[in-house]
Amino acid sequence: MIEARELTKRYGHKAAVSGLDFRVEPGRVTGFLGPNGAGKSTTMRMILGLDLPSSGSVTVNGRRYQGMVWPLYEIGALLDARAVHPGRSAYNHLHSLAAANGIPRSRVDVVLEQVGLTAVARKRVGGFSLGMSQRLGIAGALLGDPGILLFDEPVNGLDPDGILWIRTLMRSLAAEGRTVLVSSHLMSEMALTADHLLVIGEGRLLADMSLDELIARDATDRVEVRAVDHHRLAGELRTLGGEVTLEPDGTLLVVGVDSATIGELAAAQGHVLHQLRDVTSSLEEAYFRLTEDSVVYRAPVPA
Amino acid sequence: MNAHTVQTVPAERRYGLRARLRATARSEWVKLWSVRSAPAVLEATAVVIVVGALVLSSGYRSGWASLSASERAAFDPTYTSLRGIELAQLFVGALGVLAVTSEYGTGLIRATLAATPQRTQVLVVKGLVLGAVVWVVSTASSFGAFALGQRLFTGPMPHAALGDPGVLRAVLGGGLYLTLIVLFGTALGALSRSTPLGLAALFGVLLVLPLMVNLLPGSLADRILPYLPGEAGAQVWHVMPPSPRSLGPWQGFALFALYVVVSAGAVLRLTRRRDV
User: Fold this and answer.
1) CA-wise closest residue to B170 among B149, B142, B137
2) What is the mean pLDDT of residues B78-97?
3) Which of its termini does chain B have fewer beta carbons within 10 Å around, N or C?
4) Does the residue B206 lie in any domain?
């Protein structure tokens, strides 16, 4: 489990991350979502003890990362797939990391096999494609068979096969009971991978809830109506308790009255309708609205 | 649901600074030998020291007849055979700088410190591994260069034996000096965290600084020069002091060691607080 309390990072006067409170629980994929520059990578570096918080704290299994002696057995991370020495072979790169935590060499072969790099294990990583580098980075995260995994933008620059592979891997890691935190700036990707979402914008936590909750909470259903006499229809819908907005082109956006009711009303009142359409706002829209407004939505913290 | 229970570290290695140090050293050892540059630089170091002896010693041998009496009196056969060190120090120093800056340059340092959050330990062990390897290579090369050089000093030329006063110390001093140089480079690399900056600082201190001091008027240059890191440290592999103001061999070596310790101390203090 990862737990942040009032986690804050300031560079000069600018706060990259401010007052983050969250818990990342085991057994599910937690998506860490936010636009580029929202503070995701900074937060991940603070979790790993690489950047020191200006105030607040973050712990891994209840302890500060800097105090951990053999961290790779507890937490593995992929931060930047290109952060390798180009002249070193994949095998030696992993071997040096394994050696640093007393992880047996046999694990190097196991994780290379797991990510499908066995055939190129002795090749210099400078010649690897981005997809191969991502796999190598993931192999490094899996070395200690840790209960917690951190992936920073793991699908960036990958082809569809690679994306599917990573998505499947993350889901299976979570299904094994591990804690999986994966960052992305793509809502569409998270919608397919994550069970739970932490949304941040400008360094602040905007949402901490399950995917379904986020949709239910933020994605309101609307009905789009185009009628010849839209002014009269708008008035009638308002008396029914609907919330009606008139668009410049005369389209009515109705919230609170469903399309069936609107159709029946129109028939009863003799309206001529040109269009009657249900609009379900997508998760993408919900996400945009969240990050745009920077309003703090927060699910009740489980006791 | 939780088939994978929270991993715990195997009990037998949950404690123990010794196990931790050994793991860090092993990791640094693997890193050192798994890229081409380090073995190449170490080979170049050995070659430069030995070939330096060959070139300089045969040069003195063929030119001996034309040397003046005072030049002959100042001839130090041990120092002459070891002078390849003056070029080798640049290789060794760069090796130290790059051992750190290449990790920062690629971003690998994050993986390194995520695996070993004990930052000062990582740097100290990296320095110790480099220092040990450089000591072995440069000590062996110094003995080789000394033996080769003395074989070339024949006839009327003075030549040195390891039993002569100060000679064994000077030959061993070659390895000790280069060991401090690699540590100095490592410290400069960790301080600058950038290859061009680190190399500029290293070459600045070893090459440019003495030249600049030499531009100072009159005796001021003579008075300052012996206290520069390179000048001071080099006394340990000289048998005859190059100038009357030169520090003694161990005095100079101790001063250079102090420079290295101070820069390493600054680095370790900074490293604990800096973001990676």
Assistant:
1) B142
2) 96
3) N
4) yes
ipTM score of complex: 0.89
Q: In whole angstroms, what is the distance from residue A157 CA to residue A135 CA?
A: 12
Q: Is B270 on the interface with A (CB under 8 A)?
A: no
Below-50 pLDDT ranges, chain A: 295-298, 301, 303
Hey, what CATH topology would domain A220-280 get? Answer: Alpha-Beta Plaits (3.30.70)
Minimal CA separation from B116 to chain A, in Å: 7
Tokens coding A174: 């979570």
Q: Could you tell me whether strands A55-60 and A75-78 are parallel, antiparallel, or unpaired per DSSP bridges?
A: unpaired
Q: Which CATH architecture has domain A2-74+146-217+288-293?
A: 3-Layer(aba) Sandwich (3.40)
pLDDT digits (tens, 9 = 90+) for A223-243: 899 999 999 999 999 998 888
Tally of domains within chain B: 1
Among residues of chain B, what percentage have pLDDT more than 70? 95
Please report, for chain A, the start and end positions of each structural domain, with discontinuous segments joined by +: 2-74+146-217+288-293, 220-280
Shortest CB distance from A176 goes to which of B4, B20, B114? B4
Phi-psi group of B161: left, alpha or beta (phi > 0 → left; psi -120 to 50 → alpha; rest → beta): beta
